[in-house]
Amino acid sequence: MDHVLDNPVWNALSSGNKNLAEGNERIKYFDPQVSPFVGFKDNTEASFEELYHMAPVGRVFGFVSPVEVEMPAPWEVLVYIKCLQMVHNQNTVVPVDTTVELIPLTEKDIPQMLALTKLTNPGPFAERTIDFGHYHGMFDGDKLVAMAGQRMHVFNYAEASAVCTHPGYLGRGYAKKVLQFQVQRILAAAEIPFLHVRHDNERAFRVYESLGFATRKTIHFYIIKKI
């Protein structure tokens, strides 16, 4: 693998997210209450076998690969998602709408964050996903209606994630506004924004493209379970 984003989970857990890393020198993963993702130093069948012996029965992991993988038995594949990995070009000016107030999200907001992600399914989101940091949201009164945050922090690359809008508030540009905020924040930290989007989510792809993101490559996500 020639690029750190080809193996994003392993490299995140070895760099910007190492404070959240569990595992050993060959296999690293997050606490499942933060994120299901696991990364291997070497993406081999032997790594899957070692993980199988480390994990309790029923444990679910998310595995990310730059190539399609034939999952070795006895792992069960629950979900497979083909995504586009998009990286920001760093040149596109990304203004933030100053008429919109984005609020830092805290512990008290976790129930609403979980409810919103359950409604919109932007990707795995658990009780402690907020520990990744940088989550901001938009409210209608006391109701959380849109949010985005950061997930994998791979050396100088920061992943914008959990971009979602309540179904009752679609069509108002809220997703674009919360993502604009994240992009500007990451660029201000002298880092490079990246994200993942389902290959068939044309609407989201066009929004991301308009904000300066370009497809780097296809990335494959597997949700697997030890049976």
Oligomer, anyone? single chain
What's the SSE pattern? Answer: HEEEHEEEHEEEHEHE
CATH class of the largest domain, please? Alpha Beta
Question: Within the largest sheet, what's the order of strands?
Answer: 1-2-3-4-11-5-10-9-8-7-6
Counting H and I runs of at least 4 residues, what is the number of helices?
A: 5
Query: Mean pLDDT, as a whole number?
Result: 95
Characterize the main sheet.
11 strands, mixed
The fourth-level CATH homologous superfamily of the largest domain is Gcn5-related N-acetyltransferase (GNAT)
First CA to last CA: what distance? 30 Å
Overall geometric form: globular
Would you kindly provide a written description of the structure presented here, covering whatever features stand out?
Strands 1-2-3-4-11-5-10-9-8-7-6 form an eleven-stranded mixed beta sheet. It starts with 7 loop residues before the first helix and ends with a strand. The model has no long low-confidence stretch (mean pLDDT 95). It has helices spanning 8-13, 45-54, 110-120, 174-188, 202-210, and strands at 21-23, 27-30, 37-40, 60-65, 76-88, 103-104, 136-140, 143-154, 157-165, 192-198, 213-225. It is α+β, with helices and mostly antiparallel strands and 227 residues long. The longest helix has 15 residues, at 174-188.
